[in-house]
Design brief:
Helix 5 packs parallel to helix 7. The longest helix has 21 residues. A six-stranded mixed β-sheet has the order 1-2-3-4-6-5, with helices on both faces. The chain has 14 helices and six strands. It has two domains: 129 residues, no CATH class; 155 residues, no CATH class. The radius of gyration is 21 Å and the shape is globular. It binds coenzyme A (COA).
Length: 322
């Protein structure tokens, strides 16, 4: 049975994630012990599917591919393991692989390639993943689950962590946003694409990571955007950041004022927000009785908006607020 997500408590500012001691380092000895135990518990699995060739297959995957996309070789290997040994054995292999990837990150000092705030976020997430690999029930890292895809991609450095979110590099958004909301938006998007971005490719894309939901609050996102500003300085070719979600909808100011900050703070500091289309994820109703009631009363229709924060204004916001 899959474990419940962490309790939804708000961290007081003095316990903000940057001060979490786990963001300083990862317990390498515990990591090695956990991996050795997993492997000694399932000797046949690791004899038939040793870690090194699997790691080699993972290393061949391009890092700028979407984190949910796997090469035919990796997908084929997974299918073979599921067909011959079952899903649980694949999960054991993937848990050991995540430990191996984290160990490699630490031994090779990969953290040095990131600004200190993102490095701290890696350590924080690695310590969390180590806990989850050690303690959580099977099913927690089912190979079809979003949580697994995100944590696996973090270990592979296919995405990087920023508090309550994770970020894909080298992403683009569809130009169809030109046509999704009438003439006024067409002109605004055209202006953005020609003069501001410019263009719709080479952005960082933010995704929420529900394993880090305890940092989903104004302080957590401000810290996340400061990490992004630092990452943008490391990547001069990246034009800015974007995210698309129901919680970037301006209607939330009335419907869920507690979430309005997600759109408002970036928009007040240089981000643009454009309508994409109706939201079909079900996300708005996952937690909130209020939004469900308002929807049933015909007073709220979930809509997806894209929020795009160009690099120049994001970096200058960060410098003003540091
Ligand atoms: C995105 C998300 C994490 C935001 O959570 P949030 O900051 O707590 O804000 P929400 O408005 O969604 O809160 C939901 C409810 O929990 C309540 N709540 C908020 N904080 C709480 C806390 N610390 N303890 C208990 N309940 C809390 C709120 O009152 C709200 O209920 P209400 O709207 O009926 O009053 C949450 O909505 C979620 O998990 N959604 C599903 C996944 C999703 O949509 N992902 C994004 C895809 S783009």
């Amino acid at each position: 049975m899959a474990a419940d997500p962490p309790a939804r408590t708000r961290r007081p500012p003095d316990q903000a994630m940057t001060k979490d001691p786990r963001s300083e380092t990862v317990d390498l000895e515990r990591l090695r012990r956990t991996k050795a135990k997993l492997m000694s518990d399932c000797p046949r699995l690791f004899q038939t599917f040793p870690l090194s060739p699997y790691m080699a297959l993972l290393d061949q995957m391009p890092l700028d591919q979407p984190y949910t996309t796997f090469t035919p070789q990796v997908a084929g290997l997974w299918k073979r393991i599921i067909d011959e040994h079952g899903k649980e054995q694949l999960e054991i292999l993937n848990r050991a692989t995540m430990l191996e990837l984290m160990e490699r990150f630490l031994i090779r000092n990969r953290g040095e390639n990131y600004p200190s705030c993102v490095r701290g976020q890696y350590y924080l997430n690695f310590s969390r993943i180590l806990d989850e690999v050690s303690d959580f029930d099977f099913g927690n890292y089912d190979n079809d689950s979003d949580i697994f895809h995100k944590d696996f991609a973090l270990c592979r450095e296919n995405i990087f962590p920023i508090g309550p979110g994770v970020v894909e590099r080298n992403c683009g958004f569809s130009r169809s946003v030109l046509f999704s909301n009438g003439v006024r938006q067409f002109l605004d998007v055209a202006h953005f694409l020609i003069f501001v971005g410019p263009g719709n490719s080479r952005y960082f894309q933010i995704h929420t990571h529900l394993r880090m939901v305890q940092d989903f609050n104004p302080d957590g996102w401000e810290h996340a955007y400061r990490c992004l500003a630092e990452m943008l300085k490391y990547h001069p070719e990246t034009k800015g950041v974007f995210r698309a979600s129901w919680f970037c909808d301006p209607a939330l100011e009335e419907v869920s004022p507690n979430l309005a900050y997600i759109r408002k703070m970036p928009q007040d500091n240089g981000a643009d927000v454009f309508y994409i289309g109706p939201d079909k994820t079900g996300g708005p109703f996952a937690r909130s009785q209020t939004r469900r009631r308002l929807f049933e009363e015909g007073k709220y229709l979930p809509k997806t908006y894209i929020l795009i924060w160009p690099r120049k204004s994001l970096i200058s916001w960060s410098e003003r607020n540091n």
